[in-house]
Design goal:
The chain has 365 residues and is of the alpha/beta class. It is 23% helix and 14% strand. Strand 4, helix 6 and strand 5 form a beta-alpha-beta unit. Helix 4 packs parallel to helix 5 (154-169). The longest helix is centred in the N-terminal third of the chain and has 17 residues, at 111-127. The protein starts with 8 loop residues before the first helix and ends with a strand.
Length: 365
Amino acid sequence: DNQQGWWDDEHWRMYGRKERCVVEGGHYKTPYETSAKWCRAITERGGIPTTYFQPGVRSEDYAEAFPGHMLFNESHRHIPDAKGRPRVEAHAIRGGIYKIKHQESYDYTDPEFLKHMRTVYANLADAGMRGVFYDYPTRAYPARGGMEDDYSTASAAYRTVYRLAREALGPVCYLQERLGWGADLATGLVDSQRTEGDTNVLNRKIVRRTGLRWYKNRMITNYDMDGKALIAKGPTQEIPISATERQAILTMNYTISARLLLTETFSKMSPAVIHDLSRTIPYHDSTLSARPLDAFINEYPSVFDFAISPRWHQLVLYNGEPDTGKRFDIRLSGDPTFGAVGLDPGHSYYVYDFWNDRLTAKLQG
């Protein structure tokens, strides 16, 4: 049993997280034992209150209380493995530790469940909640059918997860989809999408996955690469981060992402870390993003160009293999499709080094 499905103050007071949990007992505690009190406290401190849903993760007590709200109208509908046996959850904790069997979840086409969800979001809106982070969202995709609406597609049911929140919380709210479908099914409904699982590092694979979506970033949603460490990284934060690596993390997050999620509190940051962070925020609010000039040349793009104007380009050279030296050969004029910056060959251009704050060259286009 957990708070999923219920999503009300009573069950947030009842349940916390098993394993890895910093919350003993329930999520909501005095003096913030209600959504309204918690949202008010966050807002008074200058924050934007958002909450956390697992829209396709079951709570057994909810499924047993409302079988009609579940796919196939069954409280317990097991998902079979290749041999037709009930499949054990793939999740490391739910399946690996508790051996929980994978079962069908909520029916986002069922009229009574939709009525319940509208009440859930109305209560959150009245409390002052401004957004929701949806974790494991693809579990809400009814891949095997079982919907109350015989004429609904699975994709339409999946979009309903976010549509209901958007309708209740209003046009200015913050809905985040973690690791959503590659087909961008939630386009127009979510404000941001995580491209990574849980990670506090940056590497060339992560850069590639987000960087190649440059033409969609900030245009249809805001991509983020999950939280990033600036002081120490790794599962237990045992690996110190150098100043150069920190500047690379901040540079690439600004260049290819649209959000910066930090895994460390400001209270642990030295003046040097705070200074570096301050040089890359606020992020620009234009719908444009940096283009990977070598997208069709290299497996891992490493040259990113943001054209502020025909006369002013931000050029980022990213060495995704920091233990090796890397030479960058970039044509200033020529076709950007094949790696050139596309500047005017008849003009000359000043080169300014951002992190070292110095003029470094004057080059012919």
